Amino acid sequence: MKTLIVYDSVHGNTKKIAKAIGGAIAGEVEMHHVGEVNVSELGAFDLIIVGSPTHGGRPTPAIRGFINEAPAPALKSAKVAAFDTRLPARWVRIFGYAAGRIGDSLKRKGGELVVPPEPFFVEGTEGPLKEGELERAAGWAEDVVKTME
């Protein structure tokens, strides 16, 4: 299985989650910051995982741009998954979260969401990650892969 993990990270927390996910997936795994991805090569992957910190209830502008630029034929019937990093505070729910919006955008482009979008929590705006989140990310990645078998 060939997997692509695309992430954006402002304070390094989402990158840490992306690395934990990538480390838990067997096979060929490419992990790239969103600015390093060639959207014309998306069709070469069996699984595409996209992650972003949540800012104002949305993924970062770079992640939104990546999804908008991705050619629909490259994502048609592609297996996709989405995650975000976010604060656990209740008031944040007012604005929404990045993961669900990423998942919805990937589905609109023709991707097949293999698991529900997943949140990973940070202690504060700049982090750090809450204890146990890296392990939880690895477990989530294993669950994603099981859906591909």
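Second entry:
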Amino acid sequence: MPKLSHTPLNPETITPEQIVAICDHALLHPNLTDAQLRTELLAVRVFPLASVCIKPYAVRLAKDVLSGTSIGIGTVIGFPHGSHPPAVKALETRIAFDDGATEVDMVINIGKALSHDWTHCRDDIQAVRDVAKERNGVLKVIFETDFLTDDIAKIKLCELCSELRVDYVKTSTGFGYAKQPDGHFLARGAQDADLVLMRKHSAPHVGVKASGGIRTRADALRVIALGVTRIGTTSTAAILNPPNTSAPSTSY
């Protein structure tokens, strides 16, 4: 299992390379082709990433392209809406690790959390956790905070994840497009108030991953100051290098 540290980082002294070292570079958009995925993976081979988080079918591709690097290989479970039965999520997890994943990010059953059906939520998370621990892998649990606006539910999920000893609680998929009062759909992603709540109500052995809308070094430093120890982003190059440099663009 990869070594994890949930020790708070100092945004005043952290280097760009150290920021990228806690980043999961996301390659999850449904219209990314195999050729684009390969190009992205080749581009980020040179970055000191924690992991890439790639579409489930492409885990083997990532394992092949990233061979020889220390970059972890992550994928998603129950993505993006979390409605799969626990047994299906467990099977997805087993396949992911069989294909070479070292980390998985699972989406909770959002409707069950909003219903306060904590027995189902526990069974759901535990089904994936049991496989991840069996395979010595990292488990991150996605709350999808754009939909899960109930603070009581978020606090209870933090408590459940702490009891089940998952590795991280995580804000968003990046695809949680919630309907706004004006009728438009918007995915806000990681919000400061949610990150503060998740850090406060999660045990010290559980890290907090900010995902959704982290696009610049300033964004990354802001969430690190709130206690975040893992970041999901498509903007690794922009975080590592200021705009207008020669670094490859790795965002779609």
